[in-house]
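User: Can you recover a sequence for this backbone? Please restate the input before giving your answer.

Assistant: Of course. Working from this structure:
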């Protein structure tokens, strides 16, 4: 079976009906919570018909949160009142935990995860909600109360419905399909676009199209824009993958995106920098308002940028690049003295160092993040890479578009613009302390709301798979190889 057939002909609403795998990333075993720690005994709470109905109705609506109801409650409730109450309490607490903190443990889905998690005492909250008779309202308050989460939820349900109505057939592999060309796969392209509402249903007795032209090309360009692909209408490998995601695959990606949002603190720092490494951009928030958006270059697939939170409180003007031993051994050990001289690299205390200057791989400024992983943001001399639709090309650090302009903005807002300019003018490495400490969250969201539409991005690091497996979802598509970086920068 080809990789395009992962979606299957029977996916539909079965996306939420397959059995949860019995692996470490799956649901809790009896007596354990999602982190593997021993659970406290289930408290005895007094349920009545109203509160029971509220929790059953809420769990039945779990797909609105990208969750399967049978993760929390299976089969009929016991007749015995005590047993019935215990089952209801356990189900309600489990569902509340999933909404408030996420169902999966992010530290079990990837190697590194240090972003702060939400804090909520769901056991106390449930007891209070039962007493007040507002269990349904309380449960509805637990997931993120943001426009993005609401849009992801609404779109997820829409794609689930489409997946249940359609027998999706992927478009076969082949040579790139260019506008104006004839191709036996044109009819399959039309069907794939109709399955996700990019084209209207076929009129009665409409003959199958033979040529790739007109409105069909425009629909493909719309799809390309929603997936961050160059909107040229050419159906190559990346566009074919987007077409073959189908409604079920989109629903899966949205369910995973909602889970990742539930992992995040509901009250993040009002002044912060959020980097979406899957989509390769950053958003700068100041006092709760988004004030800047720009492209970045994160790690390539075999050198992924980890999901971490780290802060910086100083800018480094004209930074030295202290080249890691791993990069030296793998990429530079066979270079001669002529290469080192041309690229302003010298050995100091047995370590290879690149001096400040126009060829320095850190560019003119480094944002000195305090992180044990040694991940940071920085400038780069390779400015042309920011215009590429696919920008996963670094060794793990995050290169920032117009980093010098971004640093000037931060320095100006903090009242240290003169000090930063003086440091730059020196031509040597200088540190400029900021008055504000800037937290940076390196996130990985392959589906997100851009303020006007839902956007999808390829799972270049393959990290969606662990989250999807923990949620009991079908297996995702194979990760297609992308072009590797051609420079040695961090």
């Amino acid at each position: 079976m080809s990789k395009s057939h992962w979606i299957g002909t029977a996916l539909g609403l079965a996306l939420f009906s397959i059995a949860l795998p019995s692996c470490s990333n799956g649901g809790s075993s009896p007596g354990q919570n999602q982190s593997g720690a021993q659970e406290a005994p289930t408290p005895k709470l007094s349920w009545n018909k109203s509160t029971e109905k509220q929790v059953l109705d809420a769990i039945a609506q779990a797909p609105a949160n990208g969750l399967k109801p049978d993760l929390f409650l299976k089969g009929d409730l016991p007749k015995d009142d005590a047993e019935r109450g215990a089952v209801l309490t356990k189900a309600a607490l489990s569902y509340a935990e999933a909404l408030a903190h996420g169902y999966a443990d992010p530290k079990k889905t990837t190697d590194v995860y240090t972003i702060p998690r939400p804090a909520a005492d769901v056991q106390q909250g449930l007891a209070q909600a039962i007493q007040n008779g507002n269990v349904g309202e309380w449960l509805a308050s637990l997931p993120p109360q943001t426009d993005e989460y609401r849009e992801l939820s609404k779109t997820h349900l829409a794609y689930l419905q489409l997946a249940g109505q359609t027998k999706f057939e992927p478009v076969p592999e082949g040579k790139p399909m260019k506008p104006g060309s004839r191709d036996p796969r044109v009819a399959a392209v039309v069907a794939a676009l109709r399955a996700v509402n990019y084209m209207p249903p076929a009129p009665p007795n409409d003959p199958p199209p033979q040529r790739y032209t007109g409105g069909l090309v425009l629909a493909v360009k719309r799809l390309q824009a929603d997936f961050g692909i160059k909107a040229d209408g050419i159906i190559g490998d990346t566009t074919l993958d987007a077409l073959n995601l189908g409604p079920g695959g989109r629903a899966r990606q949205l369910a995973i995106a909602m889970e990742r949002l539930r992992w995040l603190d509901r009250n993040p720092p009002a002044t912060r920098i959020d980097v979406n490494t899957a989509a390769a951009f950053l958003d700068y928030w100041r006092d709760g308002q988004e004030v800047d958006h720009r492209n970045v270059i994160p790690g390539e697939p075999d050198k992924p940028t980890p999901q971490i939170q780290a802060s910086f409180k100083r800018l480094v003007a004209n930074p030295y690049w202290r080249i890691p031993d791993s990069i030296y051994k793998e990429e530079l050990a066979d270079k001669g003295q002529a290469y080192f001289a041309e690229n302003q690299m010298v050995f100091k205390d047995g370590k290879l160092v690149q001096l400040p200057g126009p060829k320095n791989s850190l560019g003119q400024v480094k944002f000195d993040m305090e992180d044990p992983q040694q991940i940071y943001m920085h400038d780069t001399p390779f400015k042309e890479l920011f215009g590429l639709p696919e920008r996963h090309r670094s060794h793990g650090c995050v290169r920032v578009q117009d980093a010098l302009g971004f640093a000037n903005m931060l320095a100006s807002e903090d009242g240290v613009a003169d000090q930063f300019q003086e440091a730059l003018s020196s031509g040597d490495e200088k540190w400029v302390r900021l008055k504000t400490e800037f937290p940076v969250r390196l996130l990985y969201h392959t589906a997100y709301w851009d303020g006007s539409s839902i956007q999808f991005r390829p799972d270049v690091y393959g990290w969606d798979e662990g989250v999807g497996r923990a949620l009991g979802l079908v297996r995702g598509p194979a990760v297609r190889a992308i072009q590797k970086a051609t420079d040695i920068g961090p």
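That completes the design. The chain has two domains: 1-176+236-268+460-490, 269-456.
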